[in-house]
Amino acid sequence: QVQLVESGGGLVQAGGSVRLSCAASGSIRSIGDMAWYRQAPGKQREPVASMGRFTISRDNAKRTVYLQMNSLKPEDTAVYYCNARLTPYGLGPRTYWGQGTQVTVSS
To answer: Phi then psi for 91, rounded to 5 degrees?
Structure first.
């Protein structure tokens, strides 16, 4: 079964840091773009840009994408999702979503 598995969320104090991981698992022939999104309570899901306080990196050998978040603010509280374009063996490329991981920033 092809899937994205996220980890690393939790409760953090304002000003702290968190690193999220998202690993692709299963019978995958190729991996295209990998990205992060977040959805705050009552808001639409939005992409997370790799800039400023947030850095997105990728380890192709581990089939994993990371989101390093520094100097966190309460407004960063959200469910964070990874998204990837994966091509399973025997199938065409398709978009997958992780299950989401909660990040809560306390003031």
So the answer is: -130, 170
Could you give the 3-state DSSP secondary structure of residue 74?
helix
C-alpha 56, offset from chain centre: 9
Distance CA 19, CA 33 (A): 19
What is the residue whose two structure tokens read 């899901």?
Answer: 45
Q: Tell me the three state secondary structure of residue 76.
A: helix
Rg for the chain, CA atoms, rounded: 14
Question: pLDDT of 22-66, one tens digit each?
Answer: 999 999 999 999 999 999 999 999 999 999 999 999 999 999 999
Q: How confident is the model at residue 97 (pLDDT cuts 50, 70, 90)?
A: very high
Helix (H, G, I), strand (E, B) or coil at 2: coil
Percent of the chain with pLDDT over 90: 100
- Measure the CA dihedral 33/34/40/42, to 10°: 40
